[in-house]
What does this fold into?
Amino acid sequence: MTLHIPFDNSYGRLPVRFFTRLTPVPVKAPKLVAFNLALAKELGIETGDETTMELAFAGNAPPEGADPLAQVYAGHQFGGFSPQLGDGRANLLGEVVDVNGKRRDIQLKGSGPTPYSRRGDGRAWLGPVLREYVVSEAMHAMGVPTSRALAAVTTGEPVYRETGALPGAILTRVAASHIRVGTFQYFAAHRDLEGLRELYEYTVARHYPDVTSPTELLQAVIARQAKLMAKWMAVGFIHGVMNTDNTTISGETIDYGPCAFMDEFHPTTVFSSIDVHGRYAYDAQANVIVWNMAQFATALVPLMPDQDAAIEAFTEAVHAMPGLIHQEWLQAFGRKIGIAEAKPEDEPLITGLLKRMADNQSDFTNTFRSLAKGSLMDHFDKVLAFDDWEIDWMGRIIGEKDPFACMAAANPAFIPRNHQVEQMIAAAVEGDFAPFERMLDVLSRPFEDQPEAEDLTRPPQPSEVVQQTFCGT
It folds into this structure.
């Protein structure tokens, strides 16, 4: 059977200043190491023989109907504005309309240099490709809006980084779109009002068909991002590079670089090697997304006929966002302790547990999962630190309908633990993909008890602790 992807490439029909058309740079010896068959079916893709798939997902022979291009955008990176960034190592093959009628991008990551590479080689090595594959699919299984992984291919060519030569690889990822806050910033910064208007109209048609004004678009994106932040916090996820060019208008998690999940709970946890000041620490993410939405609002102002009134309305929307995030956080963490619909007066119960977890250096994921089974004693060095909280907690949930089922559905047993991801990558570099395949299988069912995979719930030993994660793509 011939590989068939039913492309319908609307972004490529926008004016050429939105992107640069170019084909991916072929690689020496592509080999398919992972393919997401379930996602392929959802996208209406008919798979072909392995050689055809390898050539397609390496970029050597883009499938019929593809319209390869690299998107341009701008962005604030760690607070500093760059008026032109863009896909420096990515190539949008095109879009499909999936079985649910939703338009989805299919993009190669690590497919070679583009006009936006800024002296980079445009390539990726195997480690970050497998990390994004595993983490994005785990996030999807946990119910967090995210880009997805469709395929991973090794290239048969080395990639040179600070540590030397590493095996090259290419990820094929799927997203609702790759339109970013930075895409809007690009046209606003270049005073291209016509381009900004076309981008606004395209975005509304694609993602928010009920929106009738830039004000409503801002409010809609804020609402989605508020939900996303609460979901990140609830699973202990730290993105690591929440730049505006990594913030999607669709409200999906995207661009998994130096991302990580907390083991021990500490609210100021940072993993990213490039986040030296903790700008994107776990507990800073809610503030950062508000800042990012303020930049989005600024980019939308030129579209408004009365800009003074727009600034006032946009400021009100942005200032309301912390309250929205807090409401979403309260509901997410309420469910984590068995309260289906949390009220403001439940917040001290939640924060009381989190403080005890921080004081006792408790494992974030395992503590909440154990709570779903009715006991926290294994997660506190001092039993009394838990006993007084337990009395208040039991008194609160006694009137809830099946609180333990609520907690079991809100607290994953399995996350992609950093030390295990690193061990999986090390094995893959040596040619052993069994740990990668096992992690994918277990993490596809994160809320299920899987006794045979109990080792994947284990926090790191002191010698295994991952202190920093790297972009390294």
